[in-house]
Amino acid sequence: ETGYIKNKLIIKFIKKLVNYIYKNVDYIFVQSKYFKKNILAFNDDYKKKLWVYENPSEDFSKLKVINKKIKQKTKIITYSGNIGHAQDLNVFIELAKKFRKNDDKFIIHIFGEGSLKNDLILKTKENKLNKHIKIFKHLKPNIIHKELLKSDFLLITLKGSSAFSKTIPGKFQTYLYFAKPLIVISDGYIIEKIKKYSLGEWCHTGNYIDLYKKIILLSNDKNKIKLYSKNCRSLYKDKYNLKYSVECLLNKFNELVYKN
């Protein structure tokens, strides 16, 4: 569904291989409930094997992360992750243009690598947005956590497609740990999460103007920022911490052992 593989013969071979794997395993773990339909398209009997297992966050506890309040005049929106075809990268450019036009004290920090990183760097220079966009290399967990702590908001962006709308990007779980309001531009499952748990502001892919307005309003609403931050940390503790995720997996494996 991502469109990366277009050769029909290769696609046919992959489908047969995948179906063979599904047929010969005891459990099929999927990242979200929306992938179930894809699995059941092979065989409805696979329903008994399906189990939703969302990726846990990395364990930052050993890094002694302390969520200090840092006073700064310029608000920092941080994105950490892949810079490629799965992301709606125009959001960085369009938000920066609005920040510049209205003289807003905002800056976007981007940490990562990817096939479109050089294109994003070029667009930033061409539009003279260097004051509002800073692009850095990918940082390891023991370093990136410091940058996430300094941020005011954490951004998630995904293109609008059938495949991407079904998934939750791995950075979502990591962001929750740092208890910062989320800024999300995407479609599908990730938006459902943001709305259900009240984790931040969101807009559908391509709706940059509305996203900008929501960011400005949020930056002036201390109570809402506090609420979103609290909800992010609570959801992390309840569902996405590593210990909880490992326990869920072990329970499933124990079921398998006793069943056999």
Question: What's a quick, concise take on this entry?
Answer:
The chain has 10 helices and 8 strands.
Overall helicity: 40-55%
Q: What are the low-pLDDT stretches, counting only 5+ consecutive residues below 50?
A: none
How much beta, percentage-wise? 5-15%
| Gyration radius from CA atoms, angstroms | 20 Å
Q: Characterize the main sheet.
A: 6 strands, parallel
Number of DSSP-assigned strands:
8
Structural class: alpha/beta
Q: Kindly, what is the distance between the CA atoms of the first and last residues, rounded to a whole number of angstroms?
A: 36 Å
Sheet with most strands: strand arrangement: 5-4-3-6-7-8
Shape: globular
What does this structure look like?
The chain has 260 residues and is of the alpha/beta class. The protein is 45% helix and 13% strand. The chain contains 10 helices and 8 strands. The strands form 2 sheets. Strands 5-4-3-6-7-8 form a 6-stranded parallel beta sheet, sandwiched between helices. The protein has a two-stranded parallel ribbon with strand order 1-2. Helix 2 links the parallel strand 1 and strand 2. Helix 6 crosses helix 9 and helix 9 packs parallel to helix 10. The longest helix is centred in the last third of the chain and has 19 residues. The radius of gyration is 20 Å and the shape is globular. The relative contact order is 0.14. The model has no long low-confidence stretch (mean pLDDT 88).
